[in-house]
Structures are given as structure tokens and as C-alpha cells.
Amino acid sequence: MQTLDEYDGSMDGIIVYTEVITDRINEEQKLIQSERRFRSIVEGAPDPIFIQTDMKFAYLNPAACKLFGINDPGELIGKPVMERFHPDNYEKIKSRISRLNDMQEPVEELLEQKFIRVDGSEVWVETAGEPITYEGKNGALVFVRDVSEA
After folding, report:
1. In the prediction, which pLDDT does 134 show?
2. Are 100 and 139 in contact (CB under 8 A)?
3. Are 97 and 131 in contact (CB under 8 A)?
């Protein structure tokens, strides 16, 4: 590294450094825009969508809140997802969660199952999932369709 006394007046290092910072800022802005688009799509989706990490709810869109009978996602975030699934499907669900969380494999085949709302009532749904990293943890983006009236 040059000292101030040794500085030869060259701007090369400053220009390269400025370009690196500009590139990083542009990439961060693209990432922020991408996240906003993703959030907007998921928040506005007519079907329930939730994210689970460590077998706990990490995110619920408004349609998922409605399906589970809650007013605010905070009522389920951090709570075990297994509490909202009917016990008849526990083994199958655990296997699917392992594929999503541990093996990072999508689970595209639909599973028809019963969810348990917070008031204890049951609703028939179909689910599929995609592996996702959310807040630094492996998890699943779970897509749900209410089939109770189909």
C-alpha cells in the first residue's frame, strides 16, 4: 500500500474501487426489488401459502391466516406446524418435510390432508412444497388449496 508521500497521482485504484461499490449497490437493489415482487405476489395470492423452518411456522400470507382462522400471522409464527396437521398424516408429512428441509428437494405431488384450524375445526386441503432458504434456515414454501368445498 502506498503512503500519501508515495502517491503518484494515479486514479486507477479509485476508479476500480468505485466500480466495485457501484456493482455491489446495483446487485443489492436488484435483490431488494426481487424480494418486493416476491412478497407482493405471495401476499396477494388467493391461495394460502406459508413458510416453515425447523418444523415451525416462519411466515403466513393473509390467505393462510384466513384458512387457519387467525387475524395475525404472529399467532402461529414460531409454533410447530405439526399442531395444524391431522395426526392421520403425521408420518407422510414428516417425510415430506425431511425431503424439503434436509434434502432440499421439491415435493410436487399433491397431498390431500386435513388441516386443523386454531378453533379446532378441520378443513380439507391439498399441499405441495418447494425448498427455500428463509432467514438463513432451510425450510419449505408450502402451497395450499382448500378443497373442502370442491
Report:
1. 92
2. yes
3. no
Tell me: the pLDDT tens digits for 54-101?
999 999 999 999 999 999 999 999 999 999 999 999 999 999 999 999
User: At 27, which amino acid appears?
Assistant: E
Entry pTM: 0.76
Query: Any idea which residue has 416476491 for its cell?
Result: 38
144, 117 in Cβ contact below 8 A?
A: no
What CA–CA distances, in Å, run from 37 to 32, 130, 131, 138? 9, 18, 19, 21
pLDDT at 82: 97
DSSP string, 36-72: HHHHHHHHH-SS-EEEEETTEEEEE-HHHHHHHT-SS
The Cα–Cα gap between 6 and 142 comes to 60
Rg (the chain; Cα; Å): 23
